[in-house]
Structure formats: C-alpha cells, structure tokens
C-alpha cells in the first residue's frame, strides 16, 4: 500500500509542476498585461491614493454614504474620512470618481476558473484552453469581482494563473481554491461529474497539471488526495453528493459513503481548512447537514427542504451558496444564443464559442420537442428537468433566508457551458427574485461572502486596514441591482485594474 500511495502522490506532484512549467514556456499567448485580443491592459499603482467625489456602500450599512474621501496607502485602506480641506493630504494622488457609487470588491464564492468550456481533450484545442482560462480571469475582475472561491479545477492551471493575477501580470481576481474537487469512485463512465471526456483524457491531465476531479478509490487514497491538494495550496476541500444524473434520465450516480465523507472533513480539520459539498438535491443537503460540512453548494431543486432540516441547518452554523443562475440559465437559452452571436468573442475562444452555440441550439431543439430521448441524452443537461425544478430552487432560498440561514453569493461560472464569467449581476438579480432585498443581496456579495471565506478581517467592507479592493459603478444598487452591470472602475490591492473616465488617473 505504501508503494501505491507514493506512486500516486508522486504523479500528482509531477502533474501540477509539469502543467505550470509547460504553460509558462509553451503557450505562446501574449500576456493581457501587455497586449491581447481584448486590447491593451496594464495595472496602475500609486503609493498613496485619495479617492474623491463618490457615494459608497461600505458592505454593512443599508445606505449610501457621501461627503467622504478614501485614503489608500500601498495595498490597504488607510482611512475613510469626512471630506474637508484636501490640501492637508500632501503626497496623495487625488482621483475624481464622477459621483459614482463605490462598493467593496465583489466576492464570488463558487466558480471554476479553469473550466475548459469544451469537452474534448484532443491536441487541437488543448492550448486554446489556456487562452480561455485567461479570458475567464479577465472577464471576472473587469466586471467587479475581485475575489473568488474556486471549487474545482486543474491544479497546475489554477496555480499558474493565480500567480499571474496576484502579480497583476494579467487582470484577475484573488483566488482561494480547493484545486481538484474530490469525486466518488468512478463506477462507470457516467460517474459524477458526468461530462467526463476532458477529465479522463490522459494528455489533458498531463498538460493541465492534474485532474479537474480526483476519484479516489480507497480511504487511503482519499487521505492522500486531500494531503496533496493542501500541499499544492488548497485552502478548501470540495466534494460532491448527487444521487441522480441530469444528463441521463434515471441513471443513479455513485457517492462516497459516510466514512469517506467524514475522512474529507477530518483532513480539513487537520489543516484548519473548511469543507464544501455539492448538493443540488435534497438527499445531498441532508447528508451535508448531518455530517457537518461547512458550506453546501447550490440549492436543492428536486423538492422543498423540510422544516426539520432547515432547523438542523441553522443549528449547524453552516452556510449555503445557492448559485441560482446555473439553474436559471437553462430557462433563457434564446437570450444566450443572441449573446453568443453578438458578444461571444468577448467571453469565449473560437472553439469554446462553437461548442457553446451548438449546445444552446440543441437545448432549444429539446424545448421544441424536436429531439429523441437518445439525442437528448447527449446534451450537457436536460433543460426540461431544470425548468420543471426551478420553482423549488426559489422556494428553498426563500425558506432558508427567512429562517435566518447563513447565505452567500456564487455564480458557478465555469460550471456550465452557459455560465460565462462576467455576469455576476445576473446572479444578484436572481437572488432578489427569491424575495431578498437589494441591501441583503449586496451585503451577501461582500461582507457575508468574506465571512464564509473567513477573510472578513481583510476583504468584504470598505474600512480602515482592509485591502483596497474597491469597485465603482454608475447608479444606485440599493435601488436598482441592474446598475451592478455598469462597472466603471476596479481596484485590487490599491492597484487600478480598470478605469473608465477616472479623472486624474495618469496625470
């Protein structure tokens, strides 16, 4: 057994390192910091910055404050002060923000930054995937998301692009990652995740620096995978519980047994990190609550959660990250097709755009009842299932929130070929449709999400001593969440990542 474990550990280590080095030396992609298909880009950082002429939402209070200035030194907020004589702030560079609304940088607590979007693993598209990953990072932060929790991806690629974003070599958010997600033993090719061609392709595994999902076969391998993910830099552990496939009607999916789920939790406690469980069905929700997982990902869609389990969830002190848009996207496929036709090149590489467009067209055919069951089985998901179950998603969010559940915001960007990076505002509007106020939604997107990450002492609010992660939008989000799609400025760690019409910048 020791020999087997060593072999597996050595392979994981080599895969992650190989993937990172290969990407660094062989992609041939121009850095977005210098030149890209999206235009010239470079971060701009001044030692001392004074932000002036704005309203702001601090992440805590249910109002927009005014007549303030924000002082930034290095990467931190030095002070939020009443506006007075600015001449006293010698050495600070002043920027006029045009009366925009400032907010803490948004946090997305459920993404897959290295989702390939394409499900083939051939040589022709492998390096396009690297370009797609860079687009994912860019589109994320340019739309105001400065921090993400990545809950499953290719370790080598996550590590590499995270490092590039941390150094502002490319535009991208802060990343807190689980690296590979931990799935149940395969059982069959229809195991979970079910869209397995890119996961099981050996060449992709080598180039991507490991697997999107690991499938440990024994308790020893579970411990080994957890240890290796932590060694590589994981700050969460992510597993899955799902009894039935959305892809193949009636197919049952393998799950870990209780002892195996407990082993993942035990490894998390050993390293003082939290554990997340994918739970799209009531059975997974109950399992996660009973076992004591720290976050439950998605929202049960097959039934309404019982009062008993709502109470148990509240008592557990866990949090839920609903990811409503991943369900709702399947209800608006015609809108998506139009988006792909008009702006698809902004979000997807040519190969990914082709596959995404094809998937949406096949879904539309299902909605029009033009596909056979056999043809439907080849779809990314069965959209009719999602459409039937969507009301349960909204009911469960309403029920949990009214009971006082801890709740965050996550998009599952990258979790579906329809879930594009850059549409965080859509998730906010979906949450509001579940009866959650604009204020509560914004607080969840900032402060509450920071609490889930256990990073509330550094991010999530605009106050002294916090990292200077600040965005500016045009409009009042407490009145209209649609204004969250009007991001004009993004600052991460005191550096301007995006600036549209910021008076004084570069002067």
Task: Give an account of the 3D structure.
The protein is of the alpha/beta class. Among the domains are: 107-330 and 389-422, TIM Barrel (Alpha-Beta Barrel), CATH 3.20.20; 332-376. The protein is 40% helix and 18% strand. The chain contains 16 helices and 18 strands. Strands 1-18-17-16-5-2-3-4 form an 8-stranded mixed beta sheet, with no helix packed on it. Strand 17 (487-492) and strand 18 (495-499) form a beta hairpin. Helix 1 packs across helix 3 (155-166) and helix 1 (2-26) packs parallel to helix 6 (219-232). The protein is globular and about 70 Å long. Residues 1-37 and 187-192 have low confidence and may be disordered.
Task: Estimate what percentage of residues fall within beta strands.
Answer: 15-25%
What sort of overall outline do the alpha carbons produce when their principal axes are compared?
Answer: globular
Low-pLDDT parts are: 1-37, 187-192
**Which strand order do you get reading across the main beta sheet?**
1-18-17-16-5-2-3-4
Number of strands: 18
Radius of gyration: 22 Å
Estimate the helix proportion, in percent: 25-40%
CATH fold field value of the domain at 107-330 and 389-422: TIM Barrel
CATH class wording of the domain at 107-330 and 389-422: Alpha Beta
Biggest β-sheet, characterized? 8 strands, mixed
- Give the overall pLDDT as a whole number: 84
User: Oligomer, anyone?
Assistant: single chain
Number of continuous helical runs = 16
Instruction: Quickly give the structural class.
Output: alpha/beta
């Amino acid at each position: 057994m020791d020999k087997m474990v060593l072999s597996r550990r050595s392979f994981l280590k080599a895969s992650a390192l190989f993937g990172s080095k290969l990407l660094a030396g062989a992609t041939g992609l121009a850095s977005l910091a210098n030149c890209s298909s999206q235009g010239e880009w470079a971060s701009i950082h001044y030692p001392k910055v004074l932000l002036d002429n704005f309203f702001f939402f601090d992440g805590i209070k249910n109002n927009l404050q005014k007549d303030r200035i924000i002082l930034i030194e290095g990467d931190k907020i030095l002070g939020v002060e009443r506006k007075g004589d600015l001449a006293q702030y010698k050495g600070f560079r002043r920027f006029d923000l045009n009366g925009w609304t400032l907010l803490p940088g948004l946090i997305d607590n459920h993404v897959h930054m290295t989702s390939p979007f394409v499900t083939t693993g051939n040589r022709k598209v492998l390096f396009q995937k690297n370009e797609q990953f860079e687009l994912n990072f860019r589109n994320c932060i340019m739309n105001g998301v400065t921090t993400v929790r990545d809950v499953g991806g290719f370790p080598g690629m996550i590590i590499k692009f995270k490092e590039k974003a941390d150094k502002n070599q490319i535009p991208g958010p802060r990343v807190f990652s689980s690296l590979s997600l931990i799935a149940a033993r395969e059982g069959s090719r229809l195991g979970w995740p079910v869209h397995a061609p890119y996961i099981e392709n050996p060449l992709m595994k080598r180039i991507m620096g490991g697997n999107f999902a690991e499938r440990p076969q024994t308790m020893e391998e579970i411990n080994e995978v957890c240890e290796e993910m932590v060694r590589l830099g994981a700050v969460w552990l992510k597993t899955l519980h799902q009894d039935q496939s959305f892809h193949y009607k009636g197919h049952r999916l393998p799950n870990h047994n209780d002892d195996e789920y407990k082993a993942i939790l035990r490894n998390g406690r050993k390293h003082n990190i939290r554990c997340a469980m994918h739970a799209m069905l009531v059975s997974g929700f109950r399992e996660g609550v009973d076992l004591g997982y720290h976050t439950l990902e998605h929202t049960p869609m097959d039934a309404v959660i019982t009062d008993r389990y709502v109470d148990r969830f509240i008592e557990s002190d866990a949090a839920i990250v609903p990811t409503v848009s991943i369900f709702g996207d399947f209800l608006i496929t015609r809108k998506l097709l139009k988006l792909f036709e008009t702006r698809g090149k902004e979000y997807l590489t040519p190969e990914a755009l082709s596959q995404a467009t094809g998937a949406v067209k096949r879904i539309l055919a299902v909605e029009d009842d033009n596909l056979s069951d056999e043809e439907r089985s080849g779809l990314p998901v069965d959209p009719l299932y999602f459409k039937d179950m969507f009301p349960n998603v909204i009911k469960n969010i309403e029920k949990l929130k009214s009971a006082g559940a801890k709740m965050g915001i996550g998009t599952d960007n990258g979790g579906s070929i329809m879930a594009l990076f850059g549409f965080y505002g859509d998730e906010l509007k979906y949450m509001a449709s579940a009866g959650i106020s604009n204020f509560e939604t914004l607080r969840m997107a900032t402060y509450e999400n920071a609490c889930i990450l256990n990073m509330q002492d550094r991010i999530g609010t605009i106050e002294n001593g916090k990292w200077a992660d600040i965005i500016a939008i045009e409009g009042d989000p407490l009145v209209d969440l649609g204004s969250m799609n009007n991001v004009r400025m993004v600052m991460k760690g005191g550096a301007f990542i995006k600036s549209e019409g910021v008076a004084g910048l570069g002067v």
